[in-house]
Amino acid sequence: MPWYRLILLCLLAVFVRTAAALDSQDFLPPEQAFKLTATAETADKVELHWQIVEGYHLYRDKTKFQSQTEAIQLEQASMPEGVTEHDPSLGEVVVYRNALDVVLPLINQSRETQLKLLVKYQGCADVGVCYPPQKVLLDVVLPAAQPSANSGALNQFVKGLKGLTPGLFSEELLPPEQAFQFFASLKGPHTLQASWQIAEGYYLYKDKLSVKLQGATQTQLTPLQLPEGAAYHDAEFGQVQIYRNQISADVPLLRGSSAAETIKLLAKFQGCADRGVCYPPMQAEVSLDLPSADALPQAKPAAVAELSEQDKIVNALRHDSLALTLFSFFGFGLLLAFTPCVFPMIPILSGIIVGHGDQIGTRKAFLLSLSYVFASALMYTLFGILAALFGSNLQATFQEPWVIAVFSGLFVVLSLSMFGFYHLELPKSLQSALHHSSDKHRDGSCLGAGIMGALSSLIVGPCVAAPLAAALIYIGQTGDVVLGGSALFVMGLGMGAPLLLLGASAGKLLPKAGDWLNATKAVFGVAMLAVAVWMLSRILPAAVTMFLWSLLLIIPAIFLGAIDPLPTSVTGWRKLWKGLGIIMLVFGILQLIGLSAGNSNPLQPLQGMALNAQAQLVEGLSFQRVASVAELEQRIQQASASGKPVMLDFYADWCISCKEMEAYTFTDGQVKQQLANFVLLQADVTANNEADKALLKRFELVGPPGIIFFGADGRERVAQRVIGYQDAATFLKTLQQL
């Protein structure tokens, strides 16, 4: 026998002996190895007790508690010291043996009498076999009042029994055919009903349910339409929807013949037990005898439930190829480049290019633009990954008043240099050193352009739109920062593509010297002042902002010759600039008039001042503000009790798309009519405090704008989520789908 066969035979013998030894060990189920009970002597304290079988141990740092009752919060649990041991995999750990008693204080201000407590723990057998993390949902009865002395012992005994989780009394899991029973029946010659009966303590995944026909048949099924499931965060699949107790769905049939026939229906599904054990994918087959049909109406397939825009993009990230994903996000970036949120970046980059005067060339202008766009794309990627992984929004952080004021001042300084008040340049000694250490196209200005690009992406960049939100959701759910980060980077490049075209053409389109160059620099100086006013509008009163806009129109209009007479012989260009100056002057004066009349909208300065007494002021929607998750849940419950749907709008003062929705979409008459029966709620997350972050996290949003709809049953209509700006016509289509 060859030597390698002998070695293989020996290894196989050792493996078989080891496997037999392990198999000979009768390992207990986790609920028997670690028997958990919960009791409550008072309404603000729960006592948990684990009875740990000899030869087993629990990890201290794997023991966690979470309240599933909204009105009850948990304080820090009081846990014993434990024993320090060396684990081969985890190193030095603290474990418990024999028994573990934990006192869990509660914050129960509303004096609830029922607590749903999620307990997570993990343990091992001493022989080296570890159980997966366990999740047990306990229904703990909290006493409403202090028990009397005569019946105290009996009451505590009864409450101790009620606090036990039902899973502790059933040592074995139910077989899959008992935990999840599938039924199918006919509701007529053209409709069947598919139903699943789910045992208590078990649930089915919505996206794992499907039905189809087997064998040769002239009948077809329309797509399975399932009701909204309960939101659930699964350790394996992330955020999912699940069903408990029972789920039924009607499935219309498309029959190709009116003759009677027998069809075989195959159902596929997958579910889990609450204790943390999941079943493999299951299937069941049912035969149905279709009766003959008198007529064959053309059955229309039920409309497939649409996903929200960002959910469609998330699914594409999961399934599309890398090349297709990157190409798609580049296209998304191109579309975002033409949104009002990105427009302020154009005068910033143009000012950087024009600021170089007659020394600018095509190559230099393109390098400056590339540095600006590349740094901006890198910043989108960086803050996107951080926001998805750690739940922070750097754009919101950079909307602090002092940050806005500092950078507005920076743009004022840059604009004044455009007007020739002074020149911004490096010290001569540093310029000389850079010149000798680098070529003429890398004199340090590319670094400055890159810094401006990075800061612009945070301060004047876009609000959260569907592609950006989808990438952040994907990273947060999967942890795949490579794919998600690559998509964000390519999206940033797409947003900067028009800026690259501007840089590539600057050397040819912009003049090299002369009076025209000075006029061009002045124009971009005014544009930078406009960026500064636009940024200050987030923190200044509306009246002050309107006054600044009027100054920005009137003063440049005077420099354009709006009040100067034209000579008899003048060029057409001079007439064009004078006409533009007159328009700016008139509009600026109208803003001052509107400001004195109490208006604060610079785009409609004379709003409400019409002579016609019947003219009505166009107003937007009237929202009720919610400041916390608890207040939101209370308002939704109140609306559900009244049979009314709810619209929740996420808003921030620094969100340009939010203000667009407020000015153009929410003022539309048809939109207001469609929302007449809705309870309108608004979460103002301008401050970005802990309550604001909790509201955003509740719906896995990274920032505004975002609109969430709830039906009259109090459940969210996920497919109709609105992320980013929608005009009135598009928003009406969304409302009609509710």
TrEMBL record:
Signal peptide per UniProt: 1-21
Transmembrane segments: 326-354, 366-390, 402-424, 445-475, 481-504, 516-536, 542-564, 576-597
Enzyme class, spelled out: oxidoreductase
Protein name (record): Thiol:disulfide interchange protein DsbD
EC number, as in UniProt: 1.8.1.8
Keyword rRNA-binding: no
Entry function: Required to facilitate the formation of correct disulfide bonds in some periplasmic proteins and for the assembly of the periplasmic c-type cytochromes. Acts by transferring electrons from cytoplasmic thioredoxin to the periplasm. This transfer involves a cascade of disulfide bond formation and reduction steps.
InterPro entries xref list: Cyt_c_assmbl_TM_dom, DsbD_gamma, DsbDN, DsbDN_sf, Thiol_diS_interchange_DbsD, Thioredoxin-like_sf, Thioredoxin_domain
Top-rank taxon: Bacteria
Topology relative to the membrane: Multi-pass membrane protein
Subcellular localization: Cell inner membrane
Keyword Electron transport included in the entry's annotation: yes
